[in-house]
Every structure is written in structure tokens, then in C-alpha cells.
Amino acid sequence: MGMDVTVLVHNVQDLVDRDMAELAKAVPFKAGDEPKDFALDQYHSEAEINAWFTSLATTYPTLVTTTSIGNSHEGRPIQLIKIGKSTGQPKKIFWLDAGIHAREWVAPATALWIVNELLTNYGTNADYTTLINTIDIYIAPSINPDGYEFTRSSDRLWRKTRSGPRNGCYGVDPNRNWDFKWAFSGASSNPCSEIYDGPSAFSEVETQVVSNYLLANKAQIKAYVSLHSYSELWMFPWSYQAHTYTTDHQEYLTLSSQGTAAIRALHGTRYQSGTPPDILYAVGGGSFDWAKAVAGIKWSFTLELRPGDGDTDNDGNYGFQLPASYIIRTADEAWAGILLIAKQVINTP
Predict the structure, then answer these.
(1) Which positions are catalytic?
(2) Which of the residues 39, 143, 185, 231 has the least number of beta carbons within 10 Å of its own beta carbon?
(3) What is the pLDDT of residues 304-330, one digit of tens each?
(4) What is d(CA 70, CA 210) in angstroms, rounded to the nearest whole number?
(5) CA 259/CA 277 separation, integer angstroms
(6) Which domains occur in the chain, in start order?
(7) What is the number of alpha carbons within 13 Å of residue 245 lying toward its C-beta?
(8) What's the pLDDT tens digit per position in 12-40?
(9) CA 5 to chain centre
(10) Nearest 5 degrees, angle CA 186-CA 188-CA 190?
(11) What per-residue confidence (pLDDT) applies to 7?
(12) Phi and psi angles of residue 66, each rounded to the nearest 5 degrees, phi first
């Protein structure tokens, strides 16, 4: 067809082997360990993440509350950490989740880095201190825990949940399963497809658990951010259809410009911003469209983290299999932009 072709990865198994070797060498974190011993430049198991959260709640009793908001299909807890100084009154909430797609390891790792960044700098960083004193920050780092553990044990590039089987195939794409414009675009009705949207909206217990929690707290939640990888994109509604925008689109453009500029200022990484159909592709049944349309949350964003073409670290060929050595740079630059969203919560009615 006359197209130029470049092979990015000559043997994907080489990257899988490297990932598994990294896991084998990683320092495990166990119940009872000190929070500072949790290696933020490593990828961790669900058990290690949960143990760390327990340790944080013990170490920072006036700032941290941890809870399971429900269980996954295979019975794993979907963990949530709340960071906030109690005032005795309901506070506005900033929500951040990650790991909805199992193979996107750097997204949960970034969420965990943000947890540590806030807690270890409370009292010395004025922005963090104001945030934690004024609002509550809710972080759910792994909302598809079954899929995530499956990528660690069996199939590194698994994307979906682990429900089923249906027609001999397992799982649903949990970011096509939300009950807003479900099955409208960018999804498949084939259970064997990676973008299978499920037999019905909210067929997956994981999307039920998270959406129910968001609805129960929608009066306080003023911002919703979901972390994915990869491509270095800063995205906002609407996702389901091209050339379709929210009534506050101009406000989204302004905040997105500020957020991507803050990211660029740290390491020079250039995130592209816009609605998914404008810069990527249309998707129905996604979490951040639902958060805006159904839960009525003012600010709703999805960030596609590293790797991508926007940074200068030559990490573009790793795809979903970003080495752990890139976690810190991925996380700190993303947080520079996300922090501006969190600050918006303070003054959002």
C-alpha cells in the first residue's frame, strides 16, 4: 500500500521477560514494615499495596483512613485511601483512580507515588498542607485488581477484568462498561475482544463498586481523575462522539492548558490535550464521561501517562511495559498537572 513501516519491538517476549525479572528482584513489602521501606520505583503486588496502606494508616492516624469499598469478581478488596485532616464537617473531595486496565502498570505506581508525595511533605509543602487541611483526597490505585494480578502471574498484556467465561473467553473491558453511552462507540460485542463492553452496562462488579461509591459521595466530589497509560495525553469529556463538547468546555480548555504547561515545566514532556475523539478515538461507556454526565462531577479527566512521543527519554518503544526505572519521572510530572485540578476543588461549588 506504499506505507512506511517501522518495527518498534522485534520481540515482545523480551520485554515480558525483563518485566518478570524486575519483579523477581523487587524488594517485597510486608505487613508491619515501615512506610518508608515501600520502594516507589518498583511495581508492587496487590498484597504489598494493601499492606502499605495499613502501615500508612498506623503511621499517619490523623491524616489517613483506608477502606475496602467492595470486592472484585475473584474476591480481592478494591482499596481506597483517604488523605485529609478531619474538621468535623463534610469536606469537598478530589478523587483519583488507576489500574482500570490491568496491563497499565505505571498508572497504579503513579497513584502510589502521589500518596507518598502528599503524606511525606505534609506540613512542609504549603500547597499539600492546604489541600489536606481543606479537602479530602481519595485515591483508589487499583480498581481492577483481578486483572492486575493476572498480568503479574500469567499474561503480562491482559487488559480486562476476569469475569466469565463467555464463549470461552474471559473478561470485560471495564472502561467500556459504564452506564453512559454504553455500546455507543469504540467497543465490541465480541466477548473475546479486548474492548468487549460486556453483556450489559455495569455487568462487572468492579465498575458497580466504584460507581456506587462515587454516587454515594457525589455531593462532595468535585473532581475525578483516572490514570491510564500510555501516550502522554490529557483528556476530558466528551469521549463518546467527535465534535461533542460540554457546556463548560472553555473552562476545561483553560485548566488543561495550565495542567499540560505544568507537566512540561518539570522534564519537558509535552502532553497533548483534548477530548478523546479529537486526539485519540471515540469511546462510549467510559468512566470519566459517566463521572461528568451521571454523577455530575464538575471536573473529570483521564490522563494517559508515559511512554509517548512527548518526552525526551527515548521510552516510546516500551508501550505498556515501561521499566520501573521510569516510574518516578512519570509520576512527578503527571502530579505537577494533576495538582492544579486538586486545587480547583477548593473553590468549586
Answers:
(1) 304
(2) 39
(3) 999 999 999 988 789 999 999 999 999
(4) 8
(5) 20
(6) 12-347 (3.40.630.10)
(7) 11
(8) 999 999 999 999 999 899 999 999 999 99
(9) 32
(10) 170
(11) 86
(12) -120, 150
